[in-house]
Fold these 4 entries.
Entry 1:
Amino acid sequence: MALQTDSIIEDEAAQPRKKPNIESLHRDLAFANAYRQEFIKALILIAGALFALSVSFRPELRALVREELFWFGWIGLSVSMLGGFAQLAAWERFYSSYQRFEHKGEDGKGYRDRITLARRMSLLLQVIGFVVGRRSVRSRRSTLPISRRRRRRASPP
């Protein structure tokens, strides 16, 4: 039995692995692009919603303690949204560069390298802006619950 098991392993090891065909590569690339695009859009949506809600309902929801943290939060969320929009635009330019340069017989690699740098910087701005904005707007140092504010008003000096 040991010899049969060893011979099966040797036979499997001797067979060359199949290279993926072009259809599977395109499917994998399409899946990765869809995931990336949804990630960017989701961060834009969440940052926009946090920005809108914190601006609209700021006085009604909580008493401000440190207003500058709200400003940092709003700036961070705005930077996050702008970074997301810049990423989407950069990806569009990246893909269109193949068509743009190919018909001229040029490579376009330098142009795509610059776009890739811009995409990565936009991603960094989007994520850092989101984290800074989210933490600043929801910081316990920036707001107090309304119940505390009401208690302070009700207590005699």
Entry 2:
Amino acid sequence: MDRLKIREEVLGSAVEDYCCLWEIVWGLRPLLRDSSEDDLRDVAESEIRELLKNGQLALYRRGGVSDNVIPLLASEIEAALAQQTNWQPP
């Protein structure tokens, strides 16, 4: 597994616009073709955690009718990453 390519994919997803957690998993599929969905999620989550720890990434949620984005507080991040529906496409 090429960690640099994985990091580039995760950061590339985040740079373009706001993206959902499931979109990061989808972006990793071509890099990790033989991986299960659970494995892809684990890799994505691990990389997200590392980038969060290093201050290179932030998580947001949509709020209200106007779809404003609101930064997650540090105390909300664990729950957001643990929430299964955040990893599933709509």
Entry 3:
Amino acid sequence: MLSKVNKFIKSNIFRYVVGDFLSVGISFLVSTFILVKLGTDDLGKFVFYFLLVGLFSSLAQGAANSFLMKYFYVEDFKEIISSVNITMFFFSFLSFIVYLVVYQYINTVLVNILIIFAVLKAFNSTPFVVFRLKDLSFYYMVFSVFYRIGWVIILPFMFLLNKFDVYNLILLMFVWEILSFICLYFYLYRFGFKLKINIGLIKRNILLSLNLFPHKVLKTVSENIDKYAVKFFLGDSALGIYSMIFKITSIIYMFIKSLNNELAVILSKISSKKVSEIEFNKKENKLILSIFLVNILTFLTAYIYNGWIYNLGNNFYTLYFVLICFMNLQFFYFIFYNYLFLKSHKIVYNIMMFNNVVFFSLLFFIKKNLIIIVYVYVLSYFLIVGLLSFFIDEEFLKKQKICFFILFFIFIIGGIYVF
């Protein structure tokens, strides 16, 4: 028994999950601290700032990390990493141009360092992808924690100086992002990365990223469009409340994301003919029970949080149900998305564009109601996954398609009951 436990603790999947969970846990604690000490309005401002950082970071990445996932096992290590970083330099310049165009319309704190923050975040994402692809799970876990542990160090430091506010918190997080960049690329260098230019590979990466650039923007917006809609229609305070409920339920999301990152590596190997489809099913079957247990843990967390830490309002459990469906939906979304991207990225991004058109169209009929905005957003995501599943006819993914439609049925029945 002890040997099995010890073997599990040393396994890649355990380290990936622990790394992601501790990273999210730290973020969750910081948001709770802001909520309790500063209130929902300041939490909303904090969340909106990092929405913008995430948007510009996505622009700076281009399709670099997707390119890395697709060709890592078929190209030279030094050449593929070099091409990814050179591509990100190119797209960082493009994102800076976009930033200059929209600068005067951005209403947020510390807008002057936003683009630098975003570019650093883009470059910091690449080493984590490399750690996974090279099965360096221990380093993934350590750096996932290190990447967020600075936030915990920052909080008592701010209290000692009596400077705890959103402005100073973001400024110190920016400093920690710089330190993280130095440490991550130092270790990437230790693992064998040196600049080795392959013009053909760089050209393919840039052309792919340019081809996908409009779709990448739409994808990034669509992933957070619920928060943008809440901010636009209801303001910072509503965004603060919604983001906190979202963070509670995102325990499931981060667990599923961690598992699916592992499955994505296997799908990449299947695409490169490195492993068989049986390996995917064996790995996935071990994860179903884990997801069920994490759902129970999330419910207990939600109950304790809303009852004892901060009352998030009368609509808490309604929003909780809708978001729980959304978080579990990510399991199917990640699998279908990753598999189809490896086969044909154009199908995937055209479907993402369809989702944005649907959601923006429905927004015209939405009243200023938080529950309706969120329900319509999640419904549009179910439509995405349904369309993705339509293009998948592989036998080894048949079970996932059936489970997806069961979840969709539960979501619709729940919606009829709520409204």
Entry 4:
Amino acid sequence: MKHIIGITAWRRPEFFLAAMRSMLVADRPDVHYLIRIDHDPHPNVLWVADWFADRVRGRVDIRLAKPYDPVTNGLANLPDNNVLSMMHETLGYDAEYYHCTEDDVLVSRDYFGYHESAHALHPYAFNATACSLDLQHEPGPLNFHLARDSVRALNVAASYRRPVLEEALRYLPLDYLKDPIGHLARTFPNADASSYWGIDGALGRTRNAMGRSCVVPVIGRAYHIGYIGARCWPVCDLPVIPGYPHRHGPQVEGTLMQQAQKLMTMTAEEYNERAEMKDHVVYDLGASFGPVTVLLS
């Protein structure tokens, strides 16, 4: 295989189905999938995973996380634990590119080709993301730029080279979320550990410690549709954790397939009208932009 892509899911079946339908458009024979479902999922999430597995037979593994022990796991009862576990588990596969994404991300037709071109142009990157957060550069599908020095890493629709991922995860062992603030304070003594102690912030500190940068496209090859957060579907029934982001909004109506279809065709305005956090952008994922070729500072 050339690509192993880890996908985490939990309680948002309509978002998950939309994401996997878009992944089927991007699918290639050299891609293998690891779907890691968090403990106590929505039953329809399991159905979506099986639905996808039927369409990429022999190229997908589905794993269900075990229940957490709140006494020994501390603050690990979070989606972050599932993400970190998935990242470690992808190293059990022999591939050239190691991907991380989630159940609320739509990807473009040329998703995997974009990642190959990004790493070819910047082989020493920490990672490459297909999501664009850039508002400073003139839009151009062949352009990309490097993100540095942020406390948060870009870890959605992201890919790594194996040596970089192996080095990064040495900073973040599987048990780091038992005591995330303490672990980050000990591992990165020169960085403030009081905020962004989840997986994004931990990876951001790791990237800075490694002295590397992220490849970011000016025009995205993926975007978030999760205006309802993983911890908030259909209600937030887990303890509120200070500083941990929450997303709320009304559900899309209809059958599961109808909900997924609606989510795949909504505009940014429609997402933001429903969203509490109005930060959604939309790109034409059916377009084939081709590889990135131009680095912008």
